[in-house]
UniProtKB/TrEMBL annotation, chain A:
Pathway linked to the protein: Amino-acid degradation; L-valine degradation
Listed Gene3D superfamilies: Acyl-CoA dehydrogenase/oxidase, N-terminal domain (1.10.540.10), Butyryl-CoA Dehydrogenase, subunit A, domain 2 (2.40.110.10), Butyryl-CoA Dehydrogenase, subunit A, domain 3 (1.20.140.10)
Domain Acyl-CoA dehydrogenase/oxidase C-terminal: 231-379
Keyword Oxidoreductase among UniProt keywords: yes
Name of this protein: Acyl-CoA dehydrogenase
BP GO terms, sorted: branched-chain amino acid catabolic process
Automatic annotation (TrEMBL), chain B:
Record organism: Desulfatibacillum alkenivorans DSM 16219
Protein's UniProt keywords contain Metal-binding: no
Annotated family: Belongs to the acyl-CoA dehydrogenase family.
UniProt domain Acyl-CoA dehydrogenase/oxidase C-terminal: residue ranges: 232-364
Assembly information from the UniProt record: Homotetramer.
Cofactor(s) recorded in Swiss-Prot or TrEMBL: FAD
SUPFAM superfamilies: Acyl-CoA dehydrogenase C-terminal domain-like (SSF47203), Acyl-CoA dehydrogenase NM domain-like (SSF56645)
GO MF assignments: acyl-CoA dehydrogenase activity; flavin adenine dinucleotide binding
InterPro entries according to UniProt: Acyl-CoA_Oxase/DH_mid-dom, Acyl-CoA_Oxase/DH_mid-dom_sf, AcylCo_DH-like_C, AcylCo_DH/oxidase_C, AcylCoA_DH/ox_N_sf, AcylCoA_DH/oxidase_NM_dom_sf
Biological classification of the source: Bacteria, Pseudomonadati, Thermodesulfobacteriota, Desulfobacteria, Desulfobacterales
Protein's recorded name: Butyryl-CoA dehydrogenase
Keyword annotations: FAD, Flavoprotein, Oxidoreductase
Length: 380, 369
């Protein structure tokens, strides 16, 4: 067993870190306050090559492996890119882009993947519904085959990038009488009659990631917009779990590294009772808790990323352990970071409160912690 | 990067599990006869060699430690202090003569050693060692008191940590040496068969050849604590493994309301949390071990992270196991209650979790000793 990153990976991580510090972090707070998506930074991510990092070069990507892609996510967060922005990137590249790439025809790949890589199109994925969250198979959105098209009816909820997406991967029932086997996946483009997005939802955190409802009212799409075969939808949605448990968790590792840097600097500068608060044991304890969580989370995330790079089938037990730990154990050290900053920690000026608010999503999005517990308990 | 063990390691683990299963371990007992039989048996698997060479085997070492600790915490502690603390001290600092006399029989399971380090308190972070040796001709005369010596009465040789000529030293004192008096084993909360006792040295004379001297005190203490911490991390992994297994098997077989209790979310979800803590602790341990092998500058900090995490997780996991086991768990002996009682030792001994957090905090702040 060994855990070294290659020299190239470490160099790349440093480049991404510097990129994030310079190009993204300076605008993070402003966009969070306004609840706006940072399109300018998104375009810069595209120019840097991050949006298409893992796609093959022939489609506009860089052909990077999973570990490298996870390192990029970690470095972006460590460099100060906020979790909302990174969630938007994740939904665009992996939940939408990768689903298309893996399951599309060559024609569909050529049509969409280069634009996903360049950021010319922004992607989203619609699975969750107002009454179908953890129980995905109970979704009500239908896709009725009618001649050379499908007619979609229903709605999706909590869709990251919903208000701004140009292309959506939408899951709907082609067989409403079946559960998982009745779910199929479709590509729906913005502007398709009958397809609209609701206004952005007001959220506790990840405010720079715009989230909304997607509404389908007799929305007609060409039959060739079916991804893969009818009934394959659940399998496709499950495949996104692999990204969810590795690359999309990596930013949490980076966020904690970001907090550690902030806390460390603040603790050295802040003088109380004639000495820097860094000298007090209560402060050192908080720094230690952050560090312990960071290292624990890192180990879990890269176990998944490494296995995916080896081409191994997803170990669902490991994946759920990673998601559960990061989702449920992250809030205490993030809370410590806020407390360490005292009154300033409660103000938006110092960013730590944003990271704390953003961190709350980890136990909910991409499969709740209790769903992870259910998966684990069924496997043991 | 490689998250899987090599075939060689897997073969060692198999041999180890087989050797363990052939030992007649009853209710966590670890008397001298069983200990020596276990030492010889496990030595044949290569288990005792792990961590003593430069081969970079620490992740495998932790995996193997977990298996041994799960079988019998007290037996594990005695074996580990012998091989992984005493043995490594001799391997690292010993003279050629000392290595020849001690290491070979140790690695064949024919000799058991231990370390006497703690004095007034279980840790020695703030107070300097009082145990002192003074040269007298060809001999060194040692005086001092030590507490919390694992297997003090049973070990063939005790490495007593102290000072000689103002520098760090380990006095390798054989069992029964004149001037060394062992106290009775303490009645401990956990590791009840580990024979933890005190000892007193009154003008105990050893030949100079039996002394490792000229060590920088801070470095000696750091290294001894580091090895102790690794042993305690391994112990915690084993306590978790045993507690979890006991609870898991019970939850899948014990029925109430017509179904196994694992089907109830309160039980199933609790087991999920336990497994999550256990696996996270394992990975932290493996990474910390690898970093130590690679002499990474963050190795100390990560080892302390692993120690805090694993020792505290072992208390949580064993406590949760007891809740799942219900009345069965409350009846002794069983691995969960033994694990629960023993877990506290891991948090106190070696570098305590409180001091560990301070050192981790210092590392984060960029402070160097």
């Amino acid at each position: 067993m060994e855990f070294a990153f290659s020299r190239e990976q470490l160099m790349f991580k440093k480049e991404v870190l510097n990129f994030a510090k310079k190009e993204i972090a300076p605008r993070a707070q402003e966009h969070d306050l306004k609840g706006e998506f940072d399109l300018e930074s998104f375009k810069k991510m595209a120019d840097f090559g991050i949006l298409g990092l893992h796609f093959p070069e022939e489609y506009g990507g860089s052909g990077a492996g999973v570990i490298t892609t996870a390192l990029a996510g970690e470095a972006l967060a460590e460099g100060g890119a906020d979790s909302g922005f990174l969630l938007a990137y994740g939904a665009h590249t992996f939940l939408c882009g990768d689903t298309i790439f893996r399951n599309a025809t060559e024609e569909q790949r050529k049509k969409y993947i280069p634009k996903i890589c360049s950021g010319e199109m922004i992607g989203c994925m619609g699975v969750t519904e107002p009454d179908a969250g953890s129980d995905m198979a109970s979704m009500k959105t239908t896709a009725e085959k009618a001649g050379g098209k499908y007619i979609l009816n229903g709605s999706k909820m909590f869709i990251t990038n919903g208000p701004i997406a140009d292309v959506a991967v939408v899951y709907a029932k082609t067989d409403p009488t079946a559960r998982h086997a009745g779910v199929s996946a479709f590509i729906v483009e913005k502007g398709t009659p009958g397809f609209s997005a609701g206004p952005p939802l007001k959220k506790m955190g990840v405010r720079t990631s715009l989230t909304s409802e997607l509404i389908f009212a007799n929305c007609e799409i060409p039959a060739e917009n079916l991804l893969g075969k009818e009934g394959d939808g659940f399998k496709m949605a499950s495949q996104t779990v692999e990204w969810d448990r590795s690359v999309l968790l990596a930013p949490t590792v980076g966020s904690v590294a970001y907090l550690i840097n902030k806390c460390s600097r603040y603790a050295k500068d802040r003088i109380q009772f004639d000495r820097p608060i860094a000298e007090y044991q209560a402060i050192k304890r908080k720094l230690a808790e952050l560090k312990i969580f960071e290292e624990a989370a890192r180990s879990l995330v890269y176990r998944i990323a490494w296995a995916k790079d080896q081409g191994q089938p997803l170990n669902h037990l490991y994946a759920s352990v990673a998601k559960l730990y990061i989702g449920d154990w992250n809030m205490a050290p993030m809370n410590d970071a806020v407390t360490l900053h005292g009154g300033y920690g409660y103000c938006q000026e110092y960013d730590v409160e944003r990271v704390f608010r953003d961190g709350r999503l980890a136990a909910i999005g991409g499969g709740t912690s209790d769903i992870q517990r259910m998966i684990i308990s069924r496997m043991i | 990067m490689q998250y899987e063990f090599s075939q060689q390691s897997n073969e060692l683990f198999e041999a180890l599990e087989s050797a363990i299963s052939n030992l007649d371990i009853k209710d966590g007992q670890a008397d001298d006869a069983l200990l020596r039989s276990a030492a010889a048996s496990l030595a044949s698997t290569g288990y005792l060699n792990l961590g003593l060479s430069e081969a970079g085997e620490s992740p495998a070492m932790f995996r193997a430690m977990e298996a041994a600790a799960a079988a019998s915490p007290s037996l594990y502690l005695k074996l580990e202090v012998s091989a992984r603390v005493f043995g490594r001290a001799v391997a690292q600092w010993g003279s050629d003569w000392q290595k020849e006399k001690i290491l070979s029989p140790l690695l064949f399971g024919e000799l058991l050693g231990t370390l006497a380090l703690s004095e007034k308190a279980l840790n020695v972070e703030n107070d300097p060692l009082q145990t002192m040796g003074e040269k007298n001709g060809d001999a060194v005369v040692v005086n001092g008191r030590k507490q919390f010596v694992v297997n003090g009465a049973g070990a063939d040789c005790i490495a007593v940590a102290g000072t000689l000529d103002g520098q760090g030293a380990l006095f390798l004192i054989p069992k029964g040496a004149k001037g060394m008096e062992m106290g009775p084993p303490i009645s401990a909360l956990g590791y009840e068969s580990a024979g933890i006792c005190s000892l007193e040295l009154k003008d105990c004379a050893v030949s100079e050849a039996q002394v490792i001297s000229g060590l920088k005190m801070d470095d000696m203490l750091d290294m001894l604590r580091f090895w102790e911490n690794q042993v305690l991390i391994g112990a915690s992994l084993g306590l978790m493994k045993a507690s979890f297994e006991e609870a898991r098997v019970y939850a899948k077989s014990h029925k109430t309301g017509g179904r196994p209790i694992i089907a109830y979310q309160e039980v199933g979800f609790r087991l999920s949390d336990m497994l999550t803590l256990h696996q996270t602790a394992q990975l932290l341990a493996y990474r910390a071990g690898w970093m130590a092998d690679a002499k990474d500058k963050e190795a100390q900090a990560l080892t302390l992270c692993a120690k805090v995490f694993a020792t505290e997780a072992s208390e949580k996991v064993s406590s949760d196991a007891l809740k799942i086991l219900g009345a069965k768990g409350f009846s002794t002996p069983n691995p969960a209650e033994s694990g629960f009682r023993s877990s506290k030792y891991g948090q106190i001994a070696g570098t305590s979790t409180e001091i560990s957090r301070m050192k981790i905090g210092d590392a984060v702040l960029g402070k160097r000793k």
